[in-house]
């Protein structure tokens, strides 16, 4: 009897599929049943070949050998996962396998994972495609009942492959050119470089910013506060101290009169549902989680617990076919603190509008929402609970009624000057009740505090009390945090002048995709182009210098916009993949020429007097994610060692995180407040509170090396870009 082979992207997903498909027999890299065999990739098993595969001359990095422009891009098996590829290949070649179902992630990159494996293994039998957005048993059953012919997704694959080949051509050529020309570990790429350029440009704005002093004028009228407002410009501040003093002098001792009382009943609609980027922003604002950390937590909630839908989505809407499942999803989350608001929604008939349900605004995957899986909150750790809490509250908020309030604006005349006061009376908390009345995280900014106003009528008069001019200074633009950087990457249109390209960036995912932005930001940290100080992101000297060295084209999001226009047309069958890649070869050659022609210099300003234990070169001191490190500047050496580690241990005096310094038995904990503690004393103090095994486990975690990847995407890590 012929069997169907099912190829999943990860083992955890394969286990879910196997359970639903009745496969219970474990084999070498697969799980089999009477009708199906389920196997898996480990992310990518196959990738584009290293430059070295195209000839011996590319084994050493030389400017004269650039650009590298292979006639045909070769595929190779990734060494680290070669064993699993061999297992999948053996299954694809089994005589009793009659067809294949691609069950990798439903999206451009998931398609690439499967198709490259199929091409490398030489599989020629019929292929179907499973396309689902959540990993629940119900979703899997429905997906297998509606399998599509794989050929319907051919153009999606061509689009994904074209993107990958173009990134290889541009990223590796420019990275080699920069590294060879300046004898330093430098790299560039279509997404990472404009992202870094935004951070560097913001730092330059801050450096050049000159603060200006301004004044606001306030006073008390009939028991509430009023503020001066310019009649012509509506501004509430003046940059003239003379004007401010004059206004205060003019209104002192005067009687004011209410000229207008405007009352307006307003509604604030619920926020949109989460896509990945919006969730990463809120998690960074509220919990200081990095984008990568949030994505990893989401993957567990999606794969391990089955509590949420597919995380790597750029849509904030759901499709009409999901609407009949909303009641069941609400019932599954009606536990603990969520029970009461959910019951309130279920009591009323669900009213879903275009603000939540819109097929036209969903491409590969709909918004992140809870699944129908019952939740056991006690099974989640604190990080998982925090992210799940954000998703559930947003889901409840989206299905709740609007926030309604009465806005009152009072306008007064005091000595011929215009003053205003604002007040708000809440009529119905609506969706804001989910957030306990404290507003939401939609825009990440504090809402204006509207004061409670007494009964005010037009013509009312009262003497003005305590008039004063309060000085302040204009502030420079804020440095990026991960939350605001994600926003800038998602909407980079303001950095582009061409209207058509600006629209393309706004209509696609912007710089990177929801799935890759976290990795891009991590890469900038790991290659020491940026560093984190508190929540703020600062460019390093290396990062600033790099932006001065790379070709101008690579600094702008315009390149991504142009690519996305072409890739979109490829996915629709309207542009040939070959012509796009051909254009990219010519572009790569021009970029290499621009690097070679650049007359700028690069210098390390973080050189120490300590020599590398491997090659003898002087080491560089850098700020890694977990503390200070010493790294070798030689690309081929790669030596590095930790100098200090930022631990999770809190200072017993000021409760800030302490640093670990020293080596072996000489390790000690240091705090910024001056507190110091030897490792032995720390172990003893901790040992009195917790099990000694826990202390040992904790120390092992702290000592683990940082996961440092080189530039470009993870798929390019091994190219030492």
Can you describe what's shown?
The structure is a single chain. By secondary structure, the chain is α+β, with helices and mostly antiparallel strands. It has 5 domains: 3-146, Rossmann fold, CATH 3.40.50.140; 163-207 and 479-597, Topoisomerase I, domain 2, CATH 1.10.460.10; 213-270 and 403-473, Distorted Sandwich (Topoisomerase I, domain 3); 276-398, Topoisomerase I, domain 4; 607-719, no CATH class. It is built from 21 helices and 25 strands. Strands 2-3-4-1-7-8-9 form a 7-stranded mixed beta sheet. The protein has a 6-stranded antiparallel β-barrel with strand order 10-11-14-13-12-15. Helix 3 packs across helix 5, helix 8 (276-287) packs across helix 9 (291-304) and helix 14 packs across helix 18 (558-571). The longest helix is centred in the N-terminal third of the chain and has 29 residues, at 154-182. Residues 437-447 and 703-721 have low confidence and may be disordered.
């Amino acid at each position: 009897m012929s069997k169907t082979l099912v190829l999943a992207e990860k083992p955890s997903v394969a286990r879910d599929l196997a359970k639903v498909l009745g496969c219970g027999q474990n084999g070498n890299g697969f799980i089999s049943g009477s009708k199906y065999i389920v196997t898996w990739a480990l992310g990518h098993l196959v990738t584009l070949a290293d430059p070295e595969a195209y000839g011996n001359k590319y084994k050493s990095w030389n400017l004269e050998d650039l650009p590298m422009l292979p006639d045909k891009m070769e595929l190779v098996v990734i060494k680290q996962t070669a064993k699993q590829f061999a297992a999948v290949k053996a299954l694809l070649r089994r005589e009793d396998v009659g067809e294949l179902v691609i069950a990798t992630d439903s999206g451009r990159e998931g398609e690439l994972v499967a198709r490259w494996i199929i091409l490398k293994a030489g599989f020629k039998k019929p292929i179907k495609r499973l396309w689902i957005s959540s990993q629940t048993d119900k979703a899997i059953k429905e997906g297998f009942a509606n399998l599509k012919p794989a050929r319907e997704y051919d153009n999606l694959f061509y689009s994904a492959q074209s993107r990958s080949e173009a990134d290889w051509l541009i990223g590796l050529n420019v990275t080699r050119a920069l590294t060879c020309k300046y004898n330093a570990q430098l790299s560039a790429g279509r997404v990472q470089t404009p992202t870094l350029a935004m951070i560097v440009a913001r730092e330059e704005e801050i450096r050049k910013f000159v603060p200006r002093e301004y004044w606001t004028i306030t006073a008390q009228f009939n028991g509430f506060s009023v503020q001066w407002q310019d009649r012509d410009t509506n501004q509430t501040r003046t940059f003239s101290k003379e004007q401010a003093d004059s206004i205060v002098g003019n209104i002192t001792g005067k009687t004011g009169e209410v000229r207008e009382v405007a009352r307006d009943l307003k509604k604030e609609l619920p926020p949109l549902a989460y896509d990945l980027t919006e969730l990463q922003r809120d998690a960074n604002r509220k919990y200081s989680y990095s984008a990568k950390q949030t994505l990893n937590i989401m993957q567990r909630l999606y794969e391990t617990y089955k509590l949420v839908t597919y995380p790597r989505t750029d849509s904030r809407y759901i499709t009409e076919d999901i609407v009949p499942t909303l009641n069941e999803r609400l019932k599954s989350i009606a536990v603990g603190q969520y029970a009461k608001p959910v019951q309130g929604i279920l009591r009323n008939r669900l009213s879903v509008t275009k603000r939540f349900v819109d097929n036209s605004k969903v491409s590969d995957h709909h918004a992140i929402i809870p699944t129908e899986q019952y939740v056991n909150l006690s099974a989640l750790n604190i990080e998982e609970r925090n992210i799940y809490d954000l998703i559930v509250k947003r889901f409840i908020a989206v299905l709740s009624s609007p926030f309604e309030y009465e806005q009152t604006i009072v306008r007064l005349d005091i000595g011929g000057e215009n003053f205003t006061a604002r007040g708000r009376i809440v009529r119905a908390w609506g969706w804001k009740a989910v957030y306990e009345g404290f507003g939401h995280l939609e825009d990440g900014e504090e809402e204006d505090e509207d004061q409670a106003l007494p009964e005010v009528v037009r013509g009312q008069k009262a003497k003005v009390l305590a008039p004063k001019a309060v000085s302040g200074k204009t502030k420079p633009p804020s440095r990026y945090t991960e939350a605001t950087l994600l926003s800038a990457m998602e909407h980079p249109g303001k950095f582009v002048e061409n209207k058509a390209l600006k629209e393309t960036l706004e209509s696609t995912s912007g710089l990177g995709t929801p799935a890759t932005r976290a990795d891009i930001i991590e890469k900038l940290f790991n290659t020491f182009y940026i560093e984190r100080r508190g929540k703020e992101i600062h460019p390093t000297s290396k990062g600033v210098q790099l932006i001065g060295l790379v070709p101008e084209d690579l600094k702008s999001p315009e390149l991504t916009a142009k690519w996305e226009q072409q890739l979109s047309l490829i996915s629709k069958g309207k542009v040939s993949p070959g012509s796009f890649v051909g254009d990219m070869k010519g572009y790569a050659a021009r970029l290499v020429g621009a690097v070679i022609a650049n007359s700028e210099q690069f210098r390390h300003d973080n050189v120490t007097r300590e020599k590398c234990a491997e090659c003898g070169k002087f080491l560089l001191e850098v700020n890694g994610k977990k503390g200070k490190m010493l790294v070798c500047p030689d690309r081929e050496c790669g030596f590095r060692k930790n100098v200090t580690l930022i631990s999770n241990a809190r200072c017993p005096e000021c409760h800030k995180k302490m640093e670990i310094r020293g080596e072996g038995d000489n390790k000690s904990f240091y705090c910024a407040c001056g507190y110091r503690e030897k490792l032995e004393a720390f172990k003893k103090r901790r040992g009195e509170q917790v099990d000694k095994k826990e202390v040992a486990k904790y120390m092992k975690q702290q000592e683990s090396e940082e996961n440092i990847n080189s530039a470009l995407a993870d798929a390019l890590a091994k190219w030492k870009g």
